[in-house]
């Protein structure tokens, strides 16, 4: 392990460090677009996946312009391969830059993962070894991306299912060192943290004690599913296809009570339910934020 334990708490900001309002957002799906555009007040911000809006023109970008006009926008990338061993794809960076220039998002985020190698792109976010060579490579990639895109990035903690024997850093300290070295912020995915802690028998409270929560510019919550592995042990999978579980909401409340109110996004990427079901989850998040706000003034 490396690094000292930081001070955890920070003043509650009026907006997150990434520029989003400190409210509740939703991952925008096409099935819900028109209903939400008819009443933008239903959510405080929305998030889109960058790769879904990289077309050169057409109705896709017309819809994007309406979205960017209606809400503060969080652009969430899934294909930059920040943790990869090869240089960042310049064409992908150019497409991202066009998207950022067009929409002026309040936040841009990517994953601590790799997803391409030798010109082949994988439909997955693959884990990295937490060692010093990987740390230096990720720092260089983030510096290049931030310089090229002209924005401060938020880096998301992964959900993981295996641990590498070569890892020599605590995951949270690894993320913190990246943020301190590059000036990027962190996107704390509470569901990913819960999933990883279950799968590796970690303590979420211990994990959080190794990171400065004032680096967090956005928080994600999502659903997961449980499966049985070959040894009959329960493995949690970050499926984004289930409602947010109560343990994830409880961990979210713990994070907010310790680190202050941040923008919180409800994610759902599979088995998309009616909008009303997602709005019930955003209401649960608002209740958590409300309790934290009341506690902060007592």
Automatic annotation (TrEMBL):
UniProt cross-references to InterPro entries, sorted A to Z: MbnB/TglH/ChrH, Xyl_isomerase-like_sf
Stored Pfam families: MbnB_TglH_ChrH
Name the chain's protein.
DUF692 domain-containing protein
């Amino acid at each position: 392990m490396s690094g000292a334990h930081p001070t955890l708490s920070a003043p509650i900001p009026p907006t997150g460090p990434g520029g989003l309002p400190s409210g509740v957002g939703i991952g925008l799906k096409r099935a819900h677009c028109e209903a939400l555009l008819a009443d933008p007040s239903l959510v405080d911000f929305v998030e889109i996946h960058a790769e879904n809006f990289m077309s050169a023109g057409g109705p896709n970008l017309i819809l994007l312009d309406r979205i960017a006009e209606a809400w503060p926008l969080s652009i969430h990338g899934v294909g930059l391969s920040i943790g990869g061993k090869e240089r960042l794809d310049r064409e992908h960076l150019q497409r991202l830059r066009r998207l950022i220039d067009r929409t002026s998002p309040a936040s841009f985020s990517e994953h601590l993962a790799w997803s391409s190698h030798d010109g082949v792109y994988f439909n997955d976010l693959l884990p990295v070894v937490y060692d010093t060579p990987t740390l230096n490579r990720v720092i260089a990639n983030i510096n290049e991306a931030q310089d090229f895109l002209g924005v401060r990035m938020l880096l998301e903690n992964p959900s993981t299912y295996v641990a590498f024997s070569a890892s020599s850093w605590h995951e949270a300290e690894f993320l913190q060192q990246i943020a301190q070295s590059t000036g990027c912020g962190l996107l704390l995915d509470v569901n990913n943290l819960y999933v990883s802690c279950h799968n590796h028998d970690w303590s979420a409270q211990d994990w959080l004690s190794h990171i400065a929560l004032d680096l967090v510019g956005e928080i994600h919550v999502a659903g997961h599913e449980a499966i049985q592995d070959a040894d009959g042990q329960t493995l949690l999978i970050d499926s984004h296809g289930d409602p947010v579980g109560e343990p994830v909401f409880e961990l979210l409340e713990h994070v907010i009570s310790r680190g202050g109110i941040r923008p919180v996004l409800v994610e759902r990427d599979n088995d998309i339910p009616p909008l009303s079901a997602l709005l019930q989850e955003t209401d649960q998040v608002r209740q958590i934020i409300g309790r934290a706000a009341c506690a902060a003034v007592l």
